[in-house]
Amino acid sequence: MQQTFCKDLVYDPLYRHEVKALPHEMELFQSKTLRRLKFLSHYGTASLYSSIMHSRLDHTIGVWSIIARFFPQDKELRLAALLHDIGHLPFSHAVEKTLGFNHHANTERMIREGEVNRILRKYGYNGERIIALLNSDTPLTNQTKFLGTDHFDSFLRDAYLVGSTTKKPGELLDAVRFNGNYIETDLETGLHILDAMVADHVSFLNPHAIAIDGLLSQAVLAYARYHEVELSFIEPLTNYELLYHLQTSECPYVSELVNVILWEPHRIAISEEAREGALQVDVKKVYDKEVLVGGKEITLWSAEAVCKLEQVRALQKSYYISYDIEKKP
Hints:
HD domain-containing protein, dGTPase-like, 10 strands, alpha+beta, HD/PDEase_dom, 47% helix
């Protein structure tokens, strides 16, 4: 699903709304930094074995369009929404924690340096103010248990493309409002949003996705050691560029891992029980966000909402990954 640009108008087909972009926003959309996000899968390595192919740019435009719709005059918040994911690595979160990266820190560095900073300064914006917004509780994102725009778009976008929503995202968006920094709605809509949250987590935390995340991390580590390069070499790459590096490596172990990831994922064995020699991959973080209903947490109104949040939290577990050494005929 792609957004359509027409001069200064941006149409998001997920929500079926059109937003007028400001001149500095259009220049950022046309920058290499933002264009790179088109070649990073929002769905991580799950995009390698599923039909779900939407990008970080799709998500970014969705988040920006919601902020622009509800807060049209807050130009700095709109900029924060537009730039909030520019520091992501190839395949988004797939290798970030395992290899010791932090896309938030990368984002801050890219706002302070290079073409993004040049564009901001050209139009009189201070990058430090945008970074401060990214590190504060705002309608874009927050460190509380309540839902902001960033996760709202992720839940609805992913769940819709998985085929797990019973109401269209545009209908759900029409039914929400902001109570301060947090999304508020009626009980029925809130439960639909939580359904999307559950579907999203169940899908992107699918054991096969977790397994491929782990194997990709091992391939990147092995590549860096064999070719004697810093792990940071992957930071500016797109999905395709990273796969090219790995596929053209002369390291046999890297070649074997890439072959399994791309062409023979059926060889991967996954268990929740520890096995000798297996790679342990841990799911330590979930996005168990609450919607406000009548100014209060939805879980105070609905036992069903409590169960949905518990479903998401139950996905925090460890998996043990291995694969057959000998190829099957």
